[in-house]
Amino acid sequence: MSFAKAQDLLKLAMMATGRTGVSLEEIVDEWGCSHRTAQRMTDALHAAFPQTEVEDGDDRKRRWRIHAKAIAPLLTPSAQELAALATAISTFEAEQMTAESATLRELQLKVLALLPPGTGTRLAVDEEALLEALGRAARPGPKPVLNREVNVAISEALKGPFLLRITYRRRTQDRPSERVVAPHGLLLGVRRYLVARDVAKKAGRLQHYRVEEISSAEVLDESFEIDPSFSLRAHAEKGFGSYESEAEKGEVVWRFSPVAADHAKRFVFHPTQIVEEEKDGSLLVKFRASGHLEMCWHLYTWGKSVEVLQPAALREMVSGFQREFGALP
Fold first, then answer.
1. What is the pTM of this model?
2. pLDDT of amino acid 103
């Protein structure tokens, strides 16, 4: 058996340790192989791990299951995996997501404690070399200063989900006010926004609360139900950045000059974008979103290499502020 096939077999065995095991359809999806190849892989799984169990579920799909303890000795993490875990911890810490970084750090300690004797030292050396090459330091740049206690409270409320009592100041307010909200998610970016519904408002519309403007947060004992049809990803796609406005939402069309077109092709400006190349070498980028001000902030970095075709309101906002830069973003 080749090394690559051995790796695939071990990966399949790990998939089979899941609560529901693994089906032929899942094997086909994971490896992009034919149904017959997937069957051969389950035959190999049986040969390597005789304790493999086969069950037919209520959905009439056959599933292969292995108890995790049967392959536990084969699951020593690699230096790359340990380095990825350490990088994730550093990234969370840089984003001031203290609850998440603490959880991952606990996981890291558990993983290291389960390493076979003598393995940890060698892996630690390889991990250190990888981390040095990857660069653990967070990218410098401006970002808001956040409150650790508020971050932890938001994290706990989202896990419930539980209602959250916050003290919040809008830009139009001189003093903060207290409100109880039902948190639905967190949007990350230059600024961090809590997506939540103010329970005191009958409209029930989701609002965005700037996390740096939340001076205190308390998790309440009362839980609530999130609409099963709600998708944070779909909600986030309504805006260009963190801001979302139904009044601004509409068709957005930008034309990048032939000089900047190749560079612009390497960007995803919005998850729903459609890209079209024009005969003169320019590039059209189309999507639907709101958030004209955040679009302006980004468009400024492209200088005169981009033209706003739609909407008219955005075109007027950038008019007169474009200039030539020595480099593209």
1. 0.63
2. 86
